[in-house]
Amino acid sequence: KYPPDEHHFIPYNEIKTKCIMRCLKESVNEAELKDEDEEGVLDGLKIFPSSDRKEGGRAKERKISLVVKKVREWRRLRSGVKDENGKFVQLSLEDAALKVGIAKKTLDDYLLQLRAGKKYGFDLEANKNQNIGVLRAFVRRHKKNEKEKKKPKSHSLTFPLYTSPSPPD
User: Fold this and answer.
1) What's the pLDDT tens digit per position in 117-143?
2) Is 89 helix (H, G, I), strand (E, B) or coil?
3) I need a labelling partner for 6 at 20 to 30 A (CA). Which of 23, 116, 149, 163 fits?
């Protein structure tokens, strides 16, 4: 297959996409593994071929329903659960993130987006099958509107550059 000889190279984006798909397939339990369709959807995670995204853009988009599920599980593990022996175990945020299978930084961001979406009135139930980008755009738009409302209106006051001293009385 690749490379056919020493003078040919594999495009980086192609390697990256194939590696992501392989890693995802290995990380998901066989019971949870769904057949990959022609668009590259795997367990609620959509992999975009390099031609479908802007340079430097995201390679994966999760569905809002999956994000809510994963964040809820992450926070539940942090709050504490009983293990198989009935002992109460409370995990750190990092360990809980490892158990959920998503980076802590990403989960923190998702939680922030979900809280902001709730604050601005985003309907999670109606948009549960949308990609998380829909929520991000909603929050961004509302934050911008809120910032514009708080911004004081600038009044253009003109002052004379030179004023002559007033005559003494």
Assistant:
1) 999 999 999 999 999 999 999 999 999
2) strand
3) 23
Interatomic CA distance for residues 62 and 44, integer angstroms: 6
Distance between CA atoms of 164 and 159, rounded to whole angstroms? 13
The predicted-structure confidence for 62-105, as pLDDT tens digits, reads as follows: 999 999 999 999 999 999 888 888 888 899 999 999 999 999 99
> What is the three-class DSSP state of 113?
helix
Going by C-alpha positions, the residue among 59, 58, 87, 91 that lies closest to residue 75 is 91
Is 64 in contact with 136 (CB distance < 8 Å)?
no
Per the listing, tokens 């922030």 go with: 112
Amino acid identity of residue 79, one-letter, is: S
Alpha-helix residue ranges (DSSP H) falling in the chain: 12-27, 64-79, 93-100, 104-119, 132-150
Tokens at residue 144, please?
């911008």
